[in-house]
């Protein structure tokens, strides 16, 4: 990931964003997008063991079929 350092004024503008923000140059051309960081990147990084566990869980078909759930909800009225 590339790091871009901005001045204090620009940093203050980014901090005002509460979700996705469009970044434009002075002419109004879109340069890119800024996403507010909800969690630190290291939280999102997965070890190989975590990936293996996620794959195992994805292959394990647990729960009820969607059609059964809908049918039961329709019966309840």
Overview in brief:
It contains four helices and two strands; from the N terminus they run H-E-E-H-H-H.
Notable traits:
77 residues; alpha+beta; two-stranded antiparallel sheet; 4 helices; 2 strands; elongated
Head-to-tail CA distance between termini: 52 Å
Shape: elongated
Q: How many domains, in number, for the residues?
A: 1
What integer value in Å does the Rg equal? Answer: 22 Å
Largest sheet: 2 strands, antiparallel
Number of helices: 4
Structural class: alpha+beta
Low-confidence stretches: none
Give an account of the 3D structure:
The protein is α+β, with helices and mostly antiparallel strands and 77 residues long. It has one domain. Helix content is 47%, strand content 14%. It is built from 4 helices and 2 strands. Strand 1 and strand 2 form a beta hairpin. The termini are far apart. The mean pLDDT is 84.
